[in-house]
Amino acid sequence: MSAGNRAYISSTLKGLFPRGVVVTELRGRCDVSSLHPQELPPSSKFAPKRLEEFAAGRACARRALAEFGMTGVPLVMADDRRPRWPRFLVGSITHTAGFCGAAVAGRRRYRAIGLDAEHIAHVSDSVWP
Length: 129
Description:
This protein is of the alpha+beta class.
């Protein structure tokens, strides 16, 4: 990944979720070389832009997984194209023009979690809740 474009814990998105959910984000482009080798084969059919978005999503997810002690773990795609999360976690990945995010939480506390983002226009912080 290029310097300055690393996934980080999102203080902005954190306020949208209850306690125990780790939310990360990445703005800008992501180098596809950041993908774990086991993540690459299913994404090899993607157009270059889609592959960058896929890599950014995986970078965000791996940053969140690290908060649960999971490092170096590939996040492979299931047959239905959803990420295959470690058994004790649930998560969600989203991306839109220039932005990617992931939300991850413990399965004991949450059955599922969702995150979606769309680039529509500037939205003030007061609208978020």
